[in-house]
Amino acid sequence: MIKKALLIIAILILVIQLFRPAKNSSASISANAIEAHYPVSNEIGVILRRSCYDCHSNNTVYPWYSNIQPFTWWLQSHVNEGKHELNFDEFNNYDVKKKKHKLDEVIETIEKDEMPLTSYTLIHRGAVLSPQDKDKLITWAKELKKNIN
Question: What is the pTM of this model?
Fold first, then answer.
């Protein structure tokens, strides 16, 4: 009975490998990307790409384990949720009020250490924001918010 159950589990694990969501990957930079319309210094861009863009842009850098189900579904769920909350590649599609609100949320989540997610930084140690990174992002977001009309 145990052998039969293990065989069924093994078959199910193999079968679910065939069902994969589309990857969050774009061949070009979006015309609505934040850096196409607002000042994003190289330093801020590096921090955003390292710590934010995997979940908050149209281009995710996938780790090796993203090719194994059910991790693929779990990661895609996080990416979809992140893009729903804020997509830096579609930032200029937001109206002025929403842009300012999204920048307020960036500031708040960084100040409260809610972003990047701990579940992400446990594996992606390079994505952890240093106190200096946090200060730079918060200052940038506050300045940007003031200049959006």
Answer: 0.82
